[in-house]
Amino acid sequence: MQALQGDGPLPEVRGTDELVRLGFLHFGDELDQILDHFNAAKNNSALHLTIAPTLDCNFACEYCFQNTYRNDRFMPPAVQKATLAFIEARVNEGRRNVDLVWYGGEPLLGKDILLAMTPAIRSVVERAGGHLGDVRIVTNGSLLDGATAQELRGVGVSQAQISFDALYYVEGQKRGVVNANSTPSPILVNVLTALKFLDIVLRINVSRENNTEIPSILSALKLHGLADKYYLARVDDFAAESSLPRQRTERPASGRSRVYLPIVRVTSGGSARSATLPPDRSTPRNAVRSATSKKTIPRREYAKMEQDDLTRPEAFQRLADKLTPKRHFCSATSGSMFVIDADGDISRCWESAGVKADSTGNVLEQESTQKQEKINAKWDIYHPLTYSACTSCRVLPLCMGGCSYPRVVMDASNAECTSIRQQIQFCVEEVVKRLKLPDSLDNS
Prior knowledge:
Mean pLDDT: 83
CATH superfamily of the largest domain: Aldolase class I
Number of domains: 3
Order of helices and strands: HHHEHEHEHEEEHEHEHEEHHEEEHHHHH
């Protein structure tokens, strides 16, 4: 034990260097190393751009977090020009590696803007000495016909993420996989056509409204050769979940304390077992439940659904990804992501697109307001080790605190854990089973 906690070599253990490289062993204090990795990954050489040409949408999904901020405005020429100047300035500052995501609302409602700006962005990036890599689009797929997919490919878009949220398609309301007569829905038809031009990733939004339909949705996708194209995503409700009774304490990083929080294992019956179970926080006391929260599936129930899906042969890469240590949960806390909406407001997170109160500036303005600078500073100083629940969690390197939005923007001290905390035992055992590793390794 003393050898494992020290910083010297372990000559009696074969393959130590490889175990260290893979992250299974480390030297020194583990929390210090996690924080070092987090800070080292703050990237001043990358520029992750997300641009929403409009927040307008041709679907009215009840669970959409942007519903409060919907409007029919499109990015005007002045904002487009200022956005190009903003991008060029960031590349000139040294952010040479650029990627771009078109977002919304429904970005294809502003297809002309997208088709004009994508090559213009490539031009300003290259002029400033940078390189524009991946260009992707997040779309509901209803407007992604073959001609549009070909146009997108022509300007350099390589991937489209399309979401389904129902088995049966209802125009403007449900993004179903099939029609009432079980023929492919308009969105599924577009997916199958767009595959000729774009890499397609399918996101299945899981809620209380469709959880019983998930097996049928997945069967329909498999029938059309899409079994390796999808992943499940829980519909979250940060507003309700972040108002749960405070069971986690927020501490300055210098005052870290370890509080034992047991790993919770999801069993085949969907229940959670551990030596000391934490309270079930899926039904908060003293919390005002939003309309979305009534449709939100409890996290443990969702973790079991996702766990069952991970047993599919096609899901092995996602299974492996869950066991791969992260440096940041997403680019929002790395300092390299900028989200620009149709009005030119800049924010650090997709959740903040169109929310003026969350903006950190505007491409039309040279200086940020004091309030915007304060919001930006909150993003810059965030790290998961501020929270005792994270410092004591054995899966911290695999999630790095989860989504930072509730903590940074909503001042939540008890943001909910990601599903890996409830799935860790399953994931390890499943990988061992897939790789057919022996029960014991020869140490001779």
